[in-house]
Amino acid sequence: MKKYVLLMLLAVLVAACTSGKTEFFPSREFSADAAQVTIMRERRVFGLGFSMKVLLDDEVIARLKTGQYVTFYVNPGVHRIGIPNSSITVALESARKHYFAILPDSTQFGFEIERISEVKATRWMAQSKPVE
User: Fold this and answer.
1) Angle at alpha carbon of residue 25, lines to 22 and 29, rounded to 5°
2) d(CA 53, CA 68)
3) What number of other Cβ atoms are within 10 A of residue 102's Cβ?
4) How far apart are CA 49 and CA 43, in angstroms?
5) Is residue 57 a contact partner of residue 118, using CB atoms and an 8 Å limit?
6) Which helix (H) or strand (E) holds 31?
7) What is the pTM (predicted TM-score) of this model?
8) Domain edges within the chain
9) Quick one: which of 5, 13, 26, 66 is 20 to 30 A from 90 by CA?
10) How many CB atoms lie within 10 A of CB 16?
11) How does 47-72 read in b/e, with b if 16+ C-beta sit within 10 Å?
């Protein structure tokens, strides 16, 4: 019985550590007026042991570990971008770059997503790895 419990625990831990794009990742062809979106997760010790789900319009499109980021293209317009228990509704403009960061906060869940400047994003991306 202990072996089965240990195997189940190990399976849960391995699943929590995976990162990458999911089957809902917006990889379809995009037009020249598509909005570019980059979501990054700051490299921190807090939350180091697990990956964070990234949501676009309530679909999980990727999972990020600390120090990773993902870039994708979507049609311009209003979209919900977030993580479990925290999301923001934003108007994404055509042919423009939009940057968001997953950051620790003081809520019970411990993380939030917020829009950040291109300067800050560029600095963080230089120290991070893209999700392939």
Assistant:
1) 145
2) 12
3) 25
4) 12
5) no
6) none
7) 0.77
8) 19-130
9) 66
10) 11
11) beeebbebbbeeebbbbbbbebbbeb
What's the half-sphere exposure (Cβ side, CA atoms, 13 Å) at 3? 0
Backbone phi and psi for residue 99, each to the nearest 5 degrees, phi listed first: -125, 140
Of the candidates 53, 62, 66, 50, the one whose C-alpha atom is nearest the C-alpha of residue 21 is 62
CA distance 49 to 58: 24
Is 52:41 a contact under the CB 8 Å cutoff? yes
Q: Tell me, letter by letter, the H, E, C secondary structure of 32-85.
A: CCCEEEEEEECCCCCCCCCCEEEEECCEEEEEECCCEEEEEEECCEEEEEEECC
Q: Domain 19-130 is of which CATH architecture?
A: Sandwich (2.60)
